[in-house]
Amino acid sequence: MLTVASDIDVLARFGRALADPIRCRILIALRQAPAYPADLADALGVSRTRLSNHLACLRDCGLAVTVPDGRRTRYELADERLGHALDHLLAAVVAVETDKTCPDAAPEGCC
After folding, report:
1. Angle CA(83)–CA(29)–CA(19) in degrees, nearest 5?
2. Contact indicator for 28, 34 with CB cutoff of 8 Å
3. Above pLDDT 90, what percent of the chain?
4. Whole-prediction pTM value?
5. For 82, phi and psi rounded to 5 degrees?
6. Measured between alpha carbons, how far is 78 from 6 in angstroms, rounded to an integer?
7. Is 54 helix (H, G, I), strand (E, B) or coil?
8. Is the pLDDT higher at 12 or at 65?
9. What is the pLDDT of residue 90?
10. pLDDT tens, 41-94?
11. Domain segments of the chain: what residues?
12. Which residues contact 42 (CB under 8 A, 6 or more apart)?
C-alpha cells in the first residue's frame, strides 16, 4: 500500500538534500537543464564516485530522476515545480539576508 508523506516529512527530506553544498550545486545545475553524470562531475569539479553518491541521495529523496537515453542515463529534476521552488527559495533567501552565512557546517550524510 502506498503511503503519502506528511508535509513535515517532505520538507525535512528537502532540507536534508539542500544541507550539502554539492547537492545544492547539482540541483541548481539540473534546474537549468537535464544532465549526464560525467558532464555534471566535470562541470562541478567533483569525482564521479562522489557525484554518484549525491545523485543517489537526490533520487532517494525524490528530487531527481533518471531517464534512460540510449546507453546513457540522464538526470533531471523529478518535477519541474522543484525548479520553480528553488528559484523562489533563492530569491527569498537573498531578499532576507545577502551578507549572512549559516554557521553550521553541512553534514556529509544523505537524506
Report:
1. 75
2. no
3. 61
4. 0.80
5. -65, -40
6. 18
7. helix
8. 65
9. 85
10. 999 999 999 999 999 999 998 999 999 999 999 999 999 999 999 999 888 876
11. 12-89
12. none
Distance of CA 35 to the CA centre of its chain: 13
Neighbours of 58 (CB within 10 A): 22
Domain 12-89 = CATH 1.10.10.10? yes
Pick from 4, 106, 21: nearest CA to 62:
4
**Which residue is it, cell 552565512?**
101
Q: Which contiguous run of DSSP H or E holds residue 58?
A: helix 48-60
Mean per-residue pLDDT for 97-103?
Answer: 61
Amino acid code (one letter) for 30: L
Q: At what angle do helices 21-32 and 48-60 cross, to 10 degrees?
A: 80
Amino acid, res. 43: A
